[in-house]
């Protein structure tokens, strides 16, 4: 096998995770004083929000996707074509977590509604909220939400 063919084969076999593109840093500040760091993709456009984390076989433990809706509004999510369970954190404009949907069911068409108007939704691996002890009232800090006064 030629060197070029070997290189092409190697490149095809290397995983290129979709989550690696355009990530930003996000922190969750818990009521007990912890600051938990995540690397997130931001879904701002309708196309990005529609696609979300669909068709991804895995997500690193410290990664997620932040859906920024620009202002507080009622939000409805679903798990269509989403292969992995997720936790969905519903976030108010000030960064406060208003609700958490834990371990959502992969591929489900069931609507997962926000508990009221929210600015954003943070999707993390299913079970992350329980594992880290995340609660309603904790605060998300990211350049698009949760700025400190």
UniProtKB/TrEMBL annotation:
- On whether Cytoplasm is a keyword of this UniProt record, the answer is no
Cite the source lineage. Bacteria, Pseudomonadati, Pseudomonadota, Alphaproteobacteria, Rhodospirillales
UniProt cross-references to Gene3D superfamilies, sorted A to Z: Protein of unknown function DUF192
- Pfam families per the record? DUF192
**Organism encoding this protein:** Telmatospirillum siberiense
What InterPro entries does the record point to? DUF192, Saro_0823-like_sf
List the keywords (alphabetical). Signal
Q: Say yes or no: keyword Signal present.
A: yes
Q: What is this protein called?
A: DUF192 domain-containing protein
Q: Which residues form the signal peptide?
A: 1-20
């Amino acid at each position: 096998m030629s060197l070029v063919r070997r290189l092409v084969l190697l490149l095809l076999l290397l995983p290129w995770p979709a989550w690696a593109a355009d990530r930003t840093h996000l922190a969750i500040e818990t009521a007990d004083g912890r600051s938990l760091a995540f690397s997130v993709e931001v879904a701002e456009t309708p196309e990005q929000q529609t696609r979300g984390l669909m068709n991804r076989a895995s997500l690193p433990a410290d990664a997620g996707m932040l859906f920024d809706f620009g202002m507080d509004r009622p939000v409805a999510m679903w798990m269509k074509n989403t292969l992995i369970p997720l936790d969905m954190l519903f976030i108010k404009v000030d960064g406060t977590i208003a609700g958490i949907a834990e371990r959502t069911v992969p591929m489900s068409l069931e609507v997962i509604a926000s508990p009221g108007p929210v600015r954003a939704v943070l999707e993390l691996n299913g079970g992350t909220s329980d594992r880290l002890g995340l609660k309603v009232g904790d605060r998300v800090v990211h350049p698009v939400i949760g700025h400190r006064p």
